[in-house]
Amino acid sequence: MPVSYSLLCSAIGVFFGVLAHKALFIHGEWHVRAPEIFIIHTTLLVSLHIGKALYSSTTSVNVVCEAVLWICYCYIASLFTSITIYRAFFHPLTKAGIPGPWYLRLSKLPHVWAARKSKNYLFLEDLHQRYGDFVRTGPAEITIFHPEVHNVLDSPRSECIKSEWYDLLYPFLSLVSARNKEVHAGRRREWVRGFTSKALSQHEEKVLKHVDELERRIEHDALLEKPSEVRDLFYWFGFDAMGDFVFNKSFDMLSNQKWHHIVLRLQRALSLLGPLSPAPWLVQLGLRLGPRVWVLGDWHDSVDWAKNTMRTRLEEGWSKQAAPDLTHYMMEQGVETVTEESLYWMHGDSLLAIVAGSEPTAYVLIATFCELAKHPHHAEKIYQEVQDVDVTDQKSLNRLPHLNAVINETLRLYPVLLTGGARKTTEEGVVVGGIRIPPYTTVIAPRFSISRREDCFEQPTTFIPERWTTRPEMIRNVAAFNPFSIGHNSCLGRLLAMDTMRYVTARLVKKYRFHLAPGETGMSVFDDMADQFTANPGKLTLCFELR
Question: Which of 64, 75, 121, 512 has its CA 20 to 30 A from that of 113?
């Protein structure tokens, strides 16, 4: 290619690269379109290389392919150069002087590498110690450790929306992933029917049935003087109860004493979220373009299972049930035939409901019993409260101060969302702790770090339930405690989750003494904990004995 011709092609490529950045990619969101963008660019480059290889260098086709290839490579180089210069020197977060590692202002890929072992909560806490309460952790992302942040982001008056991460299920829809406030509000009204006092009281009968089965499993081990792997037991319990709640169909893991194959696949699939959550566009590329093998296959199998199970449940229609399931309440105004859009919602809702309802409950129960085993005097205090109480009566359990204090303290030390729940500012931006956050900025607010701040809680890393009862001075700023979110994004299942945790804790403490099994330290619960949007703890083995 002549030098002048080469320079012309270079200039054209550079021009269109800068133009694409300034006129196109710098505006709006592109993560959902990442697969299409990748396919278009890759197809073009591969086609040009094939054309160049098929025709000899003297043909016009070869010359054209070579010229267009050069333009494409110059376009790509100038596009990424323009993006890099903008992020490094001219982005609003750069102008605002938000500190952070220089490499994270250029790309999220180093963050993906740092979170490769699903320890994002520890990575962000390390940045907190190095840079303070406001850290730039991405080209258009800031992580805020200030205790005010949740009130600013999620208060009823907040204009912030959910971040790009919540398009995880695209093209499926769900209440959890709905980013548009009006759409979210409409869908939330549909869900509320399944969380009324009447609906919850009906579901509590199902919960108690699964608590009975959990107790039978533990009693079986106790009579044999056999240690219980409570991580498995609590996860089996959580998924059994939530399957019953959503589909009126339990996974029957407690009764079968083994993991259900789809739950195992779902848990393996969720391991994707550990390393990929920092870069939502990578999630889109992986889930939509990756082969259906390994954990990607597990993800698609889980989605297909949710679709098929929901389809089967819908075919049953509005059949009379002793305790209606969540699907019963999500059906449109009593009409048995649903629209295609409704199916998209129900498929997404069913999968998210199973995950959001079962994993957090199991995780908190594991953490609760780990702490009670390490601090048995707290278990004895609960026993003193429940020994003359009907542990199937939720109103009675709700009035027990130490039982509820133990659960609250566990939620503080072991938040379900360690770093999840990202929000995005709108055109007005927000102010947190006197620092202005620019418009269209993703904001991460790590509950793990915020709930362990020394200026918010005295002895913040120590398990002290009394801070919620007799020692309120140990709580210096209650705003740092936000386990279920607030405002329009608050967890609809909060009451159900709290009721379930009270039932299980009260029942087991009333009937058993328990301690760490020989060789068990309880450290694996935290040391092996994975940050996969929701927390996934390590193993815990306890020995139970009948009182």
Answer: 75
User: Residues 374, 380, 383, CA angle at the centre, nearest 5°?
Assistant: 130
Helix (H, G, I), strand (E, B) or coil at 367: helix
| Structural tokens at position 338 | 């649903």
Distance CA 271, CA 383 (A): 37
DSSP H or E segment with residue 142 = strand 141-144
User: Helix (H, G, I), strand (E, B), or coil: what is residue 513?
Assistant: strand
In the chain, where the domains are located: 3-90, 181-546
pTM above the 0.90 mark?
A: yes
> Is the model more confident about 477 or about 492?
477
pLDDT in tens, 529-544: 999 999 999 999 999 9
Distance, in Å, from the CA atom of 222 to the CA atom of 169, rounded to the nearest integer, reads 42
Residues contacting 336, CB < 8 A, separation 6+: 314, 317, 318
d(CA 13, CA 18): 9
Enumerate the β-bridge partners of residue 444: 143
In terms of Cα–Cα distance, which of 241, 237, 247 is closest to 326? 247
**Coil, strand, or helix at residue 116?**
coil
CATH number for 181-546: choose from 3.10.350.10, 1.10.630.10, 1.10.246.130, 1.20.1050.10.
Answer: 1.10.630.10
d(CA 424, CA 522): 37
- Predicted confidence (pLDDT) per residue in 316-331, tens digit: 776 656 678 888 877 7
Reduce the DSSP state of residue 226 to 3 states and report it. Answer: coil
Is the sign of the CA dihedral 285, 291, 296, 302 positive or negative?
A: positive
Ramachandran angles phi, psi of 438, nearest 5°: -65, 165
Calpha distance 96→75 (Å, rounded): 30
Distance (Å, rounded) from C-alpha 541 to C-alpha 528? Answer: 14
The stretch 456-482 carries a mean pLDDT of 98
171 prior amide bond cis, ω within 30: yes
H or E segment to which residue 60 belongs:
helix 60-85
**Burial (0-12, 13-18, 19+ Cβ within 10 Å), 293:** exposed
Pairing relation of β-strands 534-536 and 442-444? Answer: unpaired
With tokens 């199916």, the residue in question is 343
Classify each residue of 97-134 as buried b or exposed e, where b means 16 or more C-beta atoms within 10 Å of its C-beta.
ebebbeebbbbbeebbebbeebbbbbbbbebbeebebb
Please give the DSSP secondary-structure letter assigned to residue 457.
Answer: B
For residue 216, what are the contacts with CB-CB under 8 A and spacing of at least 6? none
The answer to whether the CB of 440 falls within 8 A of the CB of 164 is no
